[in-house]
């Protein structure tokens, strides 16, 4: 459940003026950027407002996970009820006026603007110096995360490193390599300035481990496996895999030993959900993810056939059925609501069906749904989103070691995942996945990524990175992948319309073929 409570409305205060001389006065009680952000406590409230945007409907509570999911080969439509803007992304027909990707763009630039405000004012504020430094470190981590996401979603994007204070202070699109320079610089500063752990009311705030994790991923996205390995190895011994796989996707086991960074949510008895920006101090802090994918609710997205058939089962020649298939996916006959009810095909919403091992079947996502403890699918939930977890770090380390010629070390990392207490899959090599060469080890990494992290955000970035490097062929089943277009989304048309400088630095205002 949510541990960070926000008071962000104070950041929206504006000066009011009028062209008449007798009304051209400033309200002495209003808050402005010149009069606020002067103390360590005010900086903390400003940082809270960054988190408010991060977990809002614009980002992690809905549109962020949707944009990742719809670009991932792990998902298929649950039926004709999927809204048109979402179907666009899923089917590879995204247009510049798409509201889902546009929300993500706006959300992350709100994060960036608020982070810039803290970074600029932090050194000038009064009060506890340690607290001031911590707030700036948090802001730099959150700004880095925002730019990391933006550059992977959209490619070249405008770079703002100071608060925008004028209506015409537009920036042109900046090359990805220059965006990454800011990301790396911010993450190194955050790594040095953030604490290794959080507790109590600070659970959910960024840590040095989160900065280290994202630093490693940023190097990998740029093809620097040596430096990525150096960073990711710093996480080994500081985090451990949970004994139960589903502890990573349930409300009662949040902030566990495997969690590196998660965005907190709070379920509400009135099923409240904030469809706006999340800024109000009394806004609902829940996520609508459960309702979107729940089998007895909207069921807008379901696991793709490609993902379902990736799991090892005796039917496809494996020695054992991978338990993670049954932890990730609800099948007809599965029990729910504390094992008091049985799920049937008829109970599952939408017409979308699947094929597993050649047999038609109607299945749904179990991961990140609250059906394990309730029979009500039509409600937002308080399950935190695990943005970063240690299992992914092990997968990334395996990839680094394999790229650097250390196949034995790579396989060892993969086998740690298969040794999870309630998974216990046979070690590599297996009959289905030999690991005698670099290529074979990479195939095992691709497989293990799917079955360990199926349906989780960020896998799409990895898969697209592998496609770009010609290591795998496009896995998308709903459309033909166009390498001259589909590595990135279109720049939102609203941004093109209102930013006359967008294409001024020699990079077109819009991505190719959109």
From TrEMBL:
The record, for InterPro entries, names: SusD-like_N, SusD_RagB_dom, TPR-like_helical_dom_sf
Q: Which GO terms describe its cellular component?
A: cell outer membrane
UniProt protein name: RagB/SusD family nutrient uptake outer membrane protein
Alphabetically sorted, this entry's keywords are: Cell outer membrane, Membrane, Signal
Highest taxon, organism lineage: Bacteria
Positions of region (Disordered): 272-291
The record lists the lineage as: Bacteria, Pseudomonadati, Bacteroidota, Cytophagia, Cytophagales
Which family is annotated? Answer: Belongs to the SusD family.
TM annotation in the entry: none
* Annotated organism of origin: Adhaeribacter arboris
Q: Where is the RagB/SusD domain?
A: 258-514
Q: Where is the SusD-like N-terminal domain?
A: 82-219
Q: Can you say where in the cell this protein is located?
A: Cell outer membrane
